[in-house]
Amino acid sequence: MSTIDRSTIRATDHTVGRVTHRRGGGALALAAGLAIAGFTVLGSVFEYPQILDEPTADILALFREHQGTVMVWFLVLAISAALMAPAGIWLGRIAGGRLGRWIAGVGIGAATVQVVGLQRWVTLVPGISDDALDPALRADAEDRFELWHTLLGKAIGETLGYALTATFTVLVVIALSRTILPRWLAIVGLVAAALIATGVVIPVVEAASLTNFAGYVAWCAWLLAVAFLLVRAPADTLGFPTTHGSAGFTANASIVVRRPIAEVFEFVADARNRPSWDDSVVTEELTSAEPIRQGTTVHTRLRSMGREYAYDWVVTSFEPPVGMTVTSTAGPLPTTLTYVLTNLGDATQVDFTVVGHPTGALRLLRTAMARGTQRNLDRSFDRLQQLLEARASRRDR
């Protein structure tokens, strides 16, 4: 049994998992950049958001004075808000499992309510502003402005938007703290979320508008920092928490199976098959709906040194039939498993690597754990090779 070149694993994992991280980071960066630009221009030209505290007649008058510019930049803010939907979807795929589904759903919800609130400046306010120039229609126009401002602006766009944005931020902090988010940046995200959430009480606590504004300033800076980490983080930091440092270990295995690559991938990708060839696994079962894909979650009971341990996993990258990466989300040892398959024509090479990052007192056992893991891989992958080829022989007969 040969030892896999670690650079091969890194290169393949980079290809398999990088696209989603870059898309998520790109969406966050663009959302933050557009929000900063929009609020800066509207604050300068339209005195936004302070102008909303002025009488309706004054708001409409200043809107008419800079109507084209104001409409364009509110459209920019709407696009910025809308980007939370794809960002949520991509970040949800990164997180995987139930947490990933919550991130996607809350991100889409936050985007929707904020777009609904902001679009009034492009679709409704121009007509209301024109009607307000007619003395006979002025009172009705101002009443309509206040109605839509209260319903679409305050109730939906702001109150619901603040609550969902804060929730989205907390969920993302929880998810990314498992992988690439350092502790200090997680704290910044949680503080920003808390300050944004104070906007919910603005109707009864006027000072909350200041804490809410400070929260959005911090949030935009936080989005840019998270986006940078998602786009630039090394591929091998995407599978386990960076806070565990470099005191980890790697074990690997490589076999050649005389079966087609699609057949081999289908077998090894299904976690339920693992107990048949890995004797350290007591049971392994899917905890999310089929089919198996990025985001699929798995629960495992392992046996080691006479004791059983429970692990939860999430598939963090999935590219049939050439590779997949599975990352632990719960268990005594933060671990990443990576499969890389190579088509050899009439056979398939399977390269497998385990990266473990012991924490606390377990670091003292790092060398022993690495040796034990390697011995188990040597036995298990010999058995996997024999099992796959034996199954094929029985079918051929």
Task: Provide keyphrases for this structure.
397 residues; alpha+beta; Alpha-D-Glucose-1,6-Bisphosphate, Chain A, domain 4; 2 domains; 16% strand; elongated
SSE layout and pairings?
Blueprint: H1 6-45, H2 56-65, H3 67-82, H4 84-95, H5 97-118, H6 120-123, H7 125-131, H8 138-176, H9 183-197, H10 208-232, E1 249-257, H11 261-269, E2 281-286, E3 297-304, E4 307-319, E5 323-330, E6 335-343, E7 348-356, H12 366-396
Antiparallel strand pairs: 1-7, 2-3, 3-4, 4-5, 5-6, 6-7
Helix pairs in contact: 1-3, 1-4, 1-10, 2-7, 3-5, 4-5, 4-8, 5-8, 7-8, 8-9, 9-10
**Structure class:** alpha+beta
Number of domains: 2
Largest sheet, order of strands side by side? 1-7-6-5-4-3-2
* Major beta-sheet overview: 7 strands, antiparallel
What is the CA-based Rg, rounded? Answer: 27 Å
Percent range of helical residues:
55-70%
Q: Outline the low-pLDDT stretches.
A: 1-16, 235-246
Number of strands: 7
Give the termini distance in whole angstroms: 28 Å
Alpha plus pi helix count: 12
Order of helices and strands: HHHHHHHHHHEHEEEEEEH
Bin the strand percentage. Answer: 15-25%
- What is the 3D shape? elongated
Mean pLDDT: 86
